[in-house]
């Protein structure tokens, strides 16, 4: 296994690595007349695995691997999981000529939509693998106690993160904390939303002190104390536990994270797992031995004139909002120019075919659409393979969440200080004095979408939590309509969450469908 890029999905060196999703008991080979049974060395069993540190790390790798989807495919991650999490938001417009996520974007999906089903499968695959680790690793004699503690803590962090997907996406889900093999226990009921959030908090609180502050270079990308603190702070924020959120996020702010000088370095591969990174989905771009471990955003978002596929675009509302994010000269800020490619004298984008940045004006007549996303458009080599990681939580997000908690705790001046740290990095003029209500609106409809546009699992779930919370100022539907989201008229309250996948209801009669579906 390549230790530098430990989150590889293809762990296929001979058959001995084909365990990872679920360990099965394999038959033993009999040696003719003397009846001596010899274990097949090429087949992993429940007793032959879980013996060495390498085994434990392989299982941990597989648990991280579920971030890419249950099948470990880049296509599942980008065209199912990402699409399902992002396309409903007001910052993104899907290409209506493409089928990917079209019904989700139009709020016309059914219970058979594949995107939510793949989120469900990936989450429970990761949870099942984490549960195996929590059961097996503490009993492994070959590991030091410190190694056990770290691996167990990472498994708890990952289990919490996968439940975060489920709690925010489906709300009403089974809560599984043991690795089940008994058929009688494989058809669980749904837990209450409170029970799931309580488990998320418990896992993160237990993981945090056992996680490392940082990992050696060869293990960069594994969860750290900062990642657990940040996710726990985010979990508190989603539940409007403002005091807890402020305290926990303040701990992250006090750590050694920092904003990158160059906003674009968060997305072009120049600072993977760097000072601003708190947790990322790892991609290596490796093509050796038949691997294809790339991420494909550079194709998904790029103009056809640049060799891209044009699957999604920034919404007009987002572009208009970004145009108000100005520097002292009255020009759009750095984060605007590095987030979108649009009709502006200073706007340029990297062309995979030309191998250099091209001004908008040079290609305007060749473009099929007036505006494009620019994040992750950088390409790693001439063959268009891209190994750039995808951010889940970065420090700018933490500063904005911290500011939100401060504001809701009636500490608006302190909140403005944190927001201005983020704005200063991109040379946006600082905010002045504002009321609590005005700053709340500024955070919700400018600071977070402008800084974090199209980033994984952020905008839609911000809209979700603000509607579900006591501080709701407008419904999701009102926001979508006000921001010109196509087909927002189709939105009803049932679309606040995904339906429980029909495939799961057909298997498990103990599950109840979400309201309205």
From TrEMBL:
InterPro entries: SusD-like_N, SusD_RagB_dom, TPR-like_helical_dom_sf. Residues 76-237 form the SusD-like N-terminal domain. It is found in: Cell outer membrane. It holds the Pfam family SusD_RagB. Residues 275-517 form the RagB/SusD domain. Keywords: Cell outer membrane, Membrane, Signal. Signal peptide: none annotated. Belongs to the SusD family. This is Outer membrane starch-binding protein.
């Amino acid at each position: 296994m390549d230790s530098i890029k430990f989150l590889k999905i293809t762990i296929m060196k001979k058959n001995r690595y084909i365990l990872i999703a679920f360990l099965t008991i394999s038959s033993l080979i009999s040696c003719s007349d003397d009846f001596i049974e010899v274990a097949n060395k090429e087949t992993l069993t429940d007793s032959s695995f879980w013996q060495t540190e390498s085994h434990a790390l392989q299982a941990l790798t597989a648990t991280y691997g579920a971030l890419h989807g249950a099948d470990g495919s880049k296509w599942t991650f980008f065209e199912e999981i990402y699409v399902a999490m992002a396309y409903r938001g007001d910052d993104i417009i899907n290409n209506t000529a493409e089928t990917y996520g079209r019904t989700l974007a139009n709020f016309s999906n059914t219970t058979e939509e594949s995107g939510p089903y793949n989120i469900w499968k990936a989450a429970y695959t990761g949870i099942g693998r984490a549960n195996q680790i929590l059961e097996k690793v503490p009993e492994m004699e070959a590991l030091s106690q410190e190694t056990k503690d770290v691996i167990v803590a990472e498994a708890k962090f990952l289990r919490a993160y996968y439940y975060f997907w489920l709690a925010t996406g489906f709300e009403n889900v089974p809560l599984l904390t043991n690795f089940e093999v008994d058929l009688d226990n494989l058809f669980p009921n749904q837990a209450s939303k409170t029970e799931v959030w309580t488990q998320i908090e418990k896992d993160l609180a237990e993981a945090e002190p056992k996680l490392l502050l940082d990992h050696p270079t060869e293990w960069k990308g594994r969860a750290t104390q900062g990642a657990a603190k940040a996710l726990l702070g985010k979990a508190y924020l989603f539940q409007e536990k403002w005091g807890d959120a402020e305290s926990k996020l303040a701990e992250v702010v006090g750590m050694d994270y920092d904003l990158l000088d160059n906003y674009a370095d968060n997305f072009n591969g120049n600072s993977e797992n760097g000072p601003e990174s708190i947790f990322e989905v790892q991609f290596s771009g490796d093509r050796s031995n038949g691997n294809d471990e790339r991420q494909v955003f550079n194709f998904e978002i790029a103009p056809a004139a640049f060799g891209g596929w044009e699957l999604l675009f920034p919404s007009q509302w987002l572009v208009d909002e970004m145009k108000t994010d100005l520097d002292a000269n009255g020009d759009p800020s750095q984060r605007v120019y590095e987030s979108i490619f649009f009709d502006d004298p200073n706007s340029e984008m990297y062309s995979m075919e030309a191998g250099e940045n091209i001004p908008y004006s040079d290609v305007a007549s060749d473009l099929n659409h007036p505006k494009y996303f620019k994040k992750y458009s950088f390409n790693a080599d001439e063959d268009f393979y891209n190994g750039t990681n995808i951010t889940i939580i970065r420090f700018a997000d933490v500063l904005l969440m911290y500011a939100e908690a401060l504001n809701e705790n009636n500490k608006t001046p302190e909140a403005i200080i944190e927001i201005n740290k983020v704005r200063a990095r991109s040379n946006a003029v600082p905010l002045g004095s504002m009321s609590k209500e005005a700053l709340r609106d500024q955070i919700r409809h400018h600071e977070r979408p402008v800084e974090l546009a199209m980033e994984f699992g952020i905008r839609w779930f911000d809209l979700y939590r603000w509607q579900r919370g006591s501080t709701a100022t407008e419904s999701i539907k009102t926001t979508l309509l006000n921001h010109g989201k196509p087909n927002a008229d189709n939105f009803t309250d049932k679309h606040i969450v995904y339906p429980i996948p029909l495939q799961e209801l057909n298997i498990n009669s103990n599950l109840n469908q979400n309201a309205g579906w």
